[in-house]
Amino acid sequence: MEEAPPPYDFTDGTPATASKLTEKQRLQARQQAEDDDEDEQPQASTSSSSAIVGRSLEDGGAPTSFHVYKAPGMFNKDDIITHDDKQVVQYHLSFPRTWGGWDLSLHRGSKDGPLVARIDKGSWSSEMRISMRDGWTTTLYKSSIFKWNFKFGGMGGRTVYKWKSDGMFNSGYTCFNTTNNDIIATWRSTTFALSKDGQLLVSKHYLGETELILTTALALEEWAREQRQRSRRHGGGGGP
Q1: What is the DSSP string of 56-79?
Q2: Please, which residues have CB within 8 angstroms of residue 73's CB and are 6 or more apart in sequence?
Q3: What would the pLDDT profile of 154-212 be if each residue is shown by its tens digit?
Q4: How confident is the model over 106-163, as pLDDT tens digits?
Q5: Running DSSP on this structure, what letter comes out for residue 25?
Q6: Using CA atoms, how far apart are residues 175 and 111, in angstroms rounded to an integer?
Q7: Residue 212: what are its φ and ψ, rounded to 5°?
Q8: What is d(CA 55, CA 180) in angstroms, rounded to the nearest whole number?
Q9: Distances (CA, A) of 223 to 11, 20, 178
């Protein structure tokens, strides 16, 4: 029987009253020293101290690749995920038709395969609740008012990861480890493709969290697509 890993715990390094806080508040408390506005970068210093330079995506070898396609069917919102062979379905994201909110489920192999994770979101909320198969939960939440940047807790709850938009006119995101600035994954949307949603690359150093990273990338893409659709309906630009 597979040993269940420890549950997410965001109280590490926070006051004893942290148990009374919501998970989102605990995440924010751990990150309050960070300025989410990337326009305010630290000034260059002549001292010996310098910003931490994390590992690149390719450090440790070629990253693991996932290709995300729309499942067949005119009104089907499901996704299927393959590796580079683009043939064998590794995961299936089930997206039942709902009015406003989400109740998505990610399965290994087919739609009827073993459950990997669930993604829940309210109608107008930007917060997405990620529930992994062993009961772990974390919240993928928007961490910047003016930018499409999102944070979530890594496995074990001792690390915070951040999906950062690559720019207003780009359709991609880069995921960083906020502790050491490692690049742990990238997502590239294929906005104008008829059958493909995008491609995810995951660093070899973070393969143990592949399914969590994949789940957050799929959630982020669904959220971004929802925003683009709303923006087009109201004559806006649509964002990343």
Answers
A1: -TTTTSSPEEEEEEEPSSTT---E
A2: none
A3: 987 789 999 998 875 567 899 999 999 999 999 998 866 678 999 999 999 999 999 99
A4: 999 999 999 999 999 987 788 999 999 988 899 999 987 777 799 999 987 789 999 9
A5: H
A6: 27
A7: -65, -45
A8: 8
A9: 28, 29, 22
Integer Cα distance of 195 and 193 in angstroms: 6
pTM for the structure as a whole? 0.76
Q: What is the spatial distance between Cα 55 and Cα 183, in angstroms, rounded to a whole number? A: 6
pLDDT band at 79 (very low <50, low <70, confident <90, very high): very high
Cβ proximity of 219 and 128 under 8 Å: yes
**DSSP reduced 3-state for 110:** coil
What's the start-to-end Cα distance of the chain, in Å? 42
Q: Looking at beta carbons, which pairs linking 186-189 to residues 24 or more positions away fall under 8 Å?
A: 186/57, 186/63, 187/163, 187/217, 187/220, 187/221, 189/221, 189/224, 189/240
Give the position of tokens 């951040």. Answer: 162
Pair of tokens at residue 29: 């408390």
- Size of the chain in residues: 240
Q: What is the mean pLDDT of the chain?
A: 78
Q: How far apart are CA 102 and CA 120, in angstroms?
A: 5
